[in-house]
Description:
Blueprint: H1 15-32, H2 36-50, H3 60-77, H4 90-111, H5 113-118, H6 130-142, H7 144-172, H8 179-213
Helix pairs in contact: 1-3, 2-3, 3-8, 4-7, 7-8
Amino acid sequence: xxxxxxxxxxxxxxxxxxxxxxxxxxxxxxxxxxxxxxxxxxxxxxxxxxxxxxxxxxxxxxxxxxxxxxxxxxxxxxxxxxxxxxxxxxxxxxxxxxxxxxxxxxxxxxxxxxxxxxxxxxxxxxxxxxxxxxxxxxxxxxxxxxxxxxxxxxxxxxxxxxxxxxxxxxxxxxxxxxxxxxxxxxxxxxxxxxxxxxxxxxxxxxxxxxxxxxxx
Length: 216
């Protein structure tokens, strides 16, 4: 039973709510390395990374695959009843976003501070506009964790809220003539959320990879 529409965003500090996704990930992960779609995604991240001029973070494609697998399993697990998904927790996703963002940013400034600072000034820009462009670029870099967090949490939480509303409507109409329509609508929206879970995991990981490609 839902305590409120936003119960999917509470802290869920109970071990019972956190244990099923971890067990499912432990059971599925070893088998997923041999799946064709995972190999294709790994190739996508690798080709995107190695198409850039930077090479200091050779582990990034493997890390991106692990991150994608973690997000995908948790997104899909969250669609099951009586399970809690990490990716609808604002604090968990924001901590993860800040961790990856800050690690890439700090690594760039430590390894090559001049090149990292040069990214703030677009090449070929008029000299009179450089101060303004530097401020804009700095702000865009600083808000990256916020955009990563809001994009993932908002999409996953909104889907869970709508699923909860549809479930309540479906159960209230079990004895009505519209029951088949309610059930069909719920199944269709669940399939839609399944694809949204895949897309959101891919977008989050792809953005982290793109941020890493800017590493000097």
